[in-house]
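Q: I'm building a small set of examples for a reading group on sequence design. Run inverse folding on the following structure and report the sequence directly after it, with nothing in between.
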């Protein structure tokens, strides 16, 4: 019996690098918003430090049509303690990055991810 394997294997890796620009014609709308490699590195560096300190324990990433979401959990069964969002539609207004707390309060908005993450760096989970 011959086995059929897909070219991608059982799991498919996502490339977080921006796609190359299209040459001419209409620009295809992206299927979802994602964090690029530098953004993801910045978020995961902070996450790793907080895990090592015992403050955070789990995370989840969601890539939606209009936003990318990185949710941070103290325990896996709870609601996220903090949420980092990237909403490109707000790039020209109040900044495309936003950090919110568990109760929905906006902790920081900004044009630069490093400034938004600084709020979470200093935050202490209760």
């Amino acid at each position: 019996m011959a086995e059929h394997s897909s070219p991608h294997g059982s799991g498919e890796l996502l490339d977080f690098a921006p796609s190359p620009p299209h040459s001419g014609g209409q620009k295809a709308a992206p299927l979802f918003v994602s964090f690029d490699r530098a953004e993801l590195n910045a978020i995961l560096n902070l996450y790793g430090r907080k895990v090592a300190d015992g403050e955070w324990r789990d995370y989840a990433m969601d890539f939606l049509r209009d936003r990318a979401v990185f949710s941070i959990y103290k325990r896996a069964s709870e609601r996220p303690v903090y949420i980092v969002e990237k909403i490109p539609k707000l790039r020209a207004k109040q900044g495309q990055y936003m950090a919110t707390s568990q109760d929905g309060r906006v902790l920081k908005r900004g044009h630069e991810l490093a400034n938004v993450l600084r709020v979470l760096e200093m935050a202490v989970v209760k």
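Strands lie at 58-63, 68-73, 82-86, 97-101, 106-110.
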